[in-house]
Write the structure tokens for this entry.
Amino acid sequence: MGVVIRTAGEEDRDLVVRLLDEAFQDDPVSSWVFPGEEYRRRTHHRLMAAFADAVFADGRVDLTEDGAACALWLPVPADEQTAAEDVPAQIREAVDPENERVELIARLTDGIHPTGRAHEYLWMIGVVPGRQSEGLGTALIESVLDRCDREGLPAYLEASSARGKVLYERLGFEFTGRALDLPDGPRMWPMWREPRTPVIT
């Protein structure tokens, strides 16, 4: 039985935020942004809500039919203009004004994001803890990569763990060669995938 995937709508917002909050509670980057388990449980969901709202507005959220996994995708144009407003500062103000790491993570990831070519950006992918290692994340990613291959579009993401990096490599992503080491924190691996040419038989 294949994984049934649908595009999430605004009515799914609370489900998506809750899913991402659960999925990333123990993620190395989330743990760095929100150090301390109690603090993270109290605050982390606000950042997931900000991310979800941004993607609902400008991208697409794919959701497994059973609500156990989701992927947040943003289309990035080749000539993306720098926003006039200071988005990282706005996110910090909305999420946790006293936490400079909320703003810093946005600035650092913006700084390593490739420019000059249109691509699909996998901003986040989350699977609830009890359903990991069932292939749900792979199914979510492959559905978009198939479209990227048909349309000749590259894809990009930042892996937040060594385990994730290995998974993405199996799907055709390659490390860009420039890791992001968060100050006193974990490493992130920017990864790029060129579209694959369909094999004609």
